[in-house]
Design goal:
Length: 313
């Protein structure tokens, strides 16, 4: 296929306090929400959401997900959604909860809102669902017909993520520029089955630039839960990364990261940390200038990202 293909969510909403819009957004799709949440969402936030939604819904039900998005989890929650006669889905938390919610969307055909509480990179924006095998290894890849209906990102919630989790998002964002460029040069099709668009390349470039220019300031602003630098890196780690992944495609850095993730010694490393180290390998393998590699390693050190295999297990 030689056509250029682009896809993105219908709506992306981001800002400090954006969670206040959830009730109105849910009401646009149904009155019986089923919200898949994980530990990253936190009890206080779930209680806040429940109180916010009560006046405009018949009932609010949370399904508490584990740490993995597996076929068994999706099937279990699909039965619950059917029993509850849910008419709208939401994924609240990290990549596992959002992945399960997307799997439910495939199974039920219900509208879906994704609400990340940590920088889980492309998961909230992409239509792709990464299924983990029961043994913890990377499994099948499935795809929704379209991306999520709404992506709601409360910057204050993202800023409250654990520091290591927040920083790991930088690693994924920095890789996108190089991965999209490598795919375009090789003529590789994107996950939508078409050639990457200029907009996909622009998203990858903008994501990396936002991290390079604003990540240090964003880390300093996390305690305040607001600020322009924080907004810029959040957009980079969620929207821009998601668009670059969906429309430009992952490349060697993500392939290596998936391989690392299958190793028992690397199980405690975060996805963005694995991608960060794998990106360095990609740059060496593709014979990029030594100056570029040194510049990236220096940035990693400044931000707290790993640069050596020993640092990811």
């Amino acid at each position: 296929m030689t056509d250029r293909v682009f896809g993105a969510p219908s709506r992306y909403i981001q800002g400090a306090g954006a969670m206040a819009q959830l009730a109105a957004l849910i009401a646009g799709y149904g009155r019986r929400p089923f919200i898949i949440a994980d530990a990253a969402s936190g009890d206080a936030l779930r209680e806040e959401i429940e109180q916010q939604l009560k006046p405009s819904t018949d009932r609010v039900v949370f399904g508490l997900a584990g740490a993995s998005c597996t076929e068994a989890e999706i099937e279990r929650f699909a039965e619950t959604a059917s029993m509850l006669e849910a008419d709208v889905l939401a994924g609240l938390g990290g990549g596992a909860a959002i992945g399960i919610a997307k799997g439910l969307c495939i199974a039920t055909g219900l509208p879906l809102l994704t609400i990340p509480t940590v920088p889980c990179c492309h998961a909230p924006v992409s239509r792709l669902v990464e299924i983990e095998g029961e043994d913890g290894r990377a499994g099948a890849m499935r795809a929704m017909r379209l991306p999520p209906d709404v992506v709601l990102v409360d910057t204050a919630v993202i800023a409250a993520a654990p520091p290591r989790v927040f920083i790991a998002g930088f690693g994924d964002a920095l890789a996108r520029r190089f991965e999209v460029a490598q795919n375009a040069a090789a003529g590789t099709l994107n996950p939508l089955g078409g050639r990457p668009t200029l907009l996909a390349a622009a998203a990858g470039d903008a994501a990396g630039r936002a991290i390079r220019e604003h990540a240090v300031a964003a880390l300093a602003l996390r305690a305040r839960r607001s600020g322009e630098a924080l907004e810029r890196v959040t957009e980079a780690m969620v929207l821009l990364v998601g668009v670059a992944h969906e429309c430009g495609g992952p490349s060697m850095a993500h392939a290596l990261a998936r391989g690392f993730a299958s190793l028992p010694a690397c199980r405690t490393a975060l996805h963005g940390e694995l991608v960060a180290v794998a990106l360095l390998a990609q740059l060496v393998f593709t014979a990029r200038p030594a100056e570029l590699l040194a510049e990236l390693v220096a940035l990693y050190r400044t931000l707290g990202l790993p640069v050596r295999l020993g640092e990811i297990g």
